[in-house]
Specification:
119 residues; mainly alpha; 66% helix; 0% strand
């Protein structure tokens, strides 16, 4: 019995470790929730979608910042980052089939460029 439990757990690890790319369509759905959530009377699904959208954007922003791809001004909020990405999504409907990482990284990279150091 103990061996079968260990074997079962070992079989789960590779499946859990497999990363799935978030499709742009999911991110655009969350962005729509983010917009609806700003209005009065937002439904619970919009609140959940907003949390997912902002959290995903912040996570990508942190990864880009840590790798030196973007430079965020001090006190930049998650809402500001989400606004930049939401605006990009709304004005670039032709990009909605891109993966979510690209839908987030492109506008953040364009908006929060690092200043070049003078020699």
């Amino acid at each position: 019995m103990k061996c079968s439990v260990i074997l079962f757990c070992a079989l789960l690890v590779p499946a859990a470790a497999h990363a799935q790319i978030l499709p742009g369509s999911q991110l655009t759905d969350w962005a729509a929730s983010y917009v609806r959530n700003a209005s009065d009377g937002a439904e619970l699904r919009d609140k959940v979608g907003t949390m997912a959208f902002v959290s995903y954007v912040i996570g990508i922003a942190e990864a880009l910042r840590a790798s030196g791809k973007i430079c965020l001004p001090e006190h930049t909020s998650g809402g500001q980052l989400a606004d930049v990405v939401e605006h990009y999504i709304q004005t670039n409907a032709d990009k909605w089939n891109d993966d979510a990482f690209k839908l987030v990284s492109v506008p953040l990279s364009q908006t929060f460029k690092c200043a070049r150091k003078s020699r």
